[in-house]
Amino acid sequence: MLSVEQVTKCYGDFTALEDISLEFTQGVYGLLAPNGAGKSTLMKMLATLLFPTKGRILWDGEDIAFMGETYRGILGYLPQDFGYYPNYTPRQFMRYAAALQKLTRAVADQRIDRLLELVGLSDAADKKLKKLSGGMLQRVGIAVAMLNEPKLLILDEPTAGLDPGERVRFRNLIHALANERIVILSTHIVSDIETIAGQIIMLRDRRLLCCDTPSQICSRFRGKIFQVPADVPLRPHQHVLSEGQGENGTVLRILSDMPPSAGVAVAPTLEDAFLAIYTAGESEHIR
Ligand SMILES: Nc1ncnc2c1ncn2[C@@H]1O[C@H](COP(=O)(O)OP(=O)(O)O)[C@@H](O)[C@H]1O
Ligand SMILES: [Mg+2]
Q1: Global confidence as pTM
Q2: What is the pLDDT averaged over residues 22-46?
């Protein structure tokens, strides 16, 4: 189990994260927050690339800052911008990564074949990386992060730049990887994680806003999300979350404590919750 205990991270005078406490057991955790919220900062601390200014992070009760190689054996990490050699093939790149991890060639080759198959890249194993699509490259990155068969897999914005088909494929892959390990992935796109993350972690104003199931987060907004015609005048404290096309023209989804003069209550989605929290500044419901 991974525990984050009252962690604060400052860059010089700037506090990026403050007093974050979290516990991770098995399953998929989605770190969902807008750009600049501190997702990468938190993930880098979980990967021991950065260290907390205050607080500590424990793996099964032991401070990860002092676990060295043991922790690196547990951890698989895909950085937000991972570097690669464009003229390498996925197989060569994975062999190189395996050598850095001191895996023997025999073990490495066996794992590489299996992982390339798992991420659906067996046919591209010997093509140059510079010829691969964004989605294929991300899958190479995930395969590399999986080389040591990590108990903790951290993926920073793994869906950035994927097309819709690649997103579906990615969701299926994460399901396959989530067995018996902790997977933590970050994104600022709700649809990328609402169906794969058992728990959603949101950060706001440097602090932890919530860590809960998607349905629990949605339920806090039940009875407060309405679909209304675009020409209905809004009162103060009614916030437009999004705009869409209804059967009779443009409709708005709004956040309101009281039923509006026209329109219907709708079941809140995670997207509604995300917009309510980050664009309408609504965080009381969720605390
Ligand atoms: N090395 C750094 N030095 C100073 N400020 C940084 C550094 N890295 C990130 N920040 C700042 O910390 C905040 C959080 O950044 P980051 O963790 O990258 O957010 P996210 O991944 O959610 O987009 C941002 O305001 C960012 O500008
Ligand atoms: Mg980031």
Answers
A1: 0.93
A2: 96
